[in-house]
Amino acid sequence: MGRAYSDDLRERVVRAVIKGGLSRHQAAAQFGVGISTAINWVQRFHETGSVKPDQIGGYRPKKIAGPHREWLMQRCRNDFTVRGLVAELAERGLKVDYRTTWEFVHAEKLSYKKDADCRRAGSSRCHPSAGAVDQVSGSDPSAAASDGTNLPRCVWLSCKRKLQGGPPRLCFGRLRLWLSELTGRAA
Predict the structure, then answer these.
(1) Which residue, 14, 63, 69, 123, shows the most beta carbons closer than 10 Å to its own?
(2) pLDDT digits 0-9 by tens, 16-75
(3) How remote is the C-alpha of 156 from its chain's centroid?
(4) Alpha carbon of 81 to those of 60, 66, 110, 114, 117: distances in Å?
(5) CA–CA separation, 162 vs 179, rounded Å?
(6) What's the mean per-residue pLDDT of the chain?
């Protein structure tokens, strides 16, 4: 972020306009500042009697404070989403954006984590496709194969499908290597 121009330069530009008779455009060109800058400095001098800049930066009190903070702390004991909290705060009369709410939740170390059974966004290359919860065999998708080999489970499932006549579905590069080792021939 840029710094404010010096008070000395501000005073010289304003003095050139008010006492020297220069236009704001001429004073801006003479002192090497922007035209709108010179206009604003002269306007500030007429309004306040000073050319000093306003404060830049500083402390800004948090929007989520007092009764809203207490309500939000209670509310976050149950499941929530940040977007949902923004909407609920708006209903209660406090207009905040997503970022403000997220920063509050993060600063207070509040979070809602879904349990492991809810990870059902879809299949990846190394895990079986997500079917119904009862159909998923085993609770740990990264567990070793159930036949006692040291194959990763995703490769074992693909090998099993291949050996049963079905098309392999996952990890094709590793699948070929493991198939060749399992069957003793090139896959």
Answers:
(1) 14
(2) 999 999 999 999 999 999 999 999 999 999 999 999 988 877 877 888 888 988 988 888
(3) 37
(4) 26, 21, 11, 11, 19
(5) 9
(6) 76
Q: Which residues pair with 144 in a beta bridge?
A: 152
Task: Supply 82's token pair.
Answer: 């940040």
d(CA 125, CA 127): 6
Q: Chain-centre distance of CA 41, in angstroms?
A: 39
Give the three-state DSSP class for 52.
coil
What CA–CA distance (Å, rounded) separates 2 from 6?
12
Residue type (1 letter), 24: R
68 touches 96 (CB < 8 A): no
Among 70, 53, 66, residue whose Cα is nearest residue 1: 53
Say how far residue 150 (Cα) sits from the centre of its chain. Answer: 39
Alpha-helical runs (H) found in the chain: 7-18, 24-31, 35-48, 67-75, 82-91, 98-107, 153-163, 172-183
Amino acid occupying residue 29: A
Largest CA distance in the chain: 99
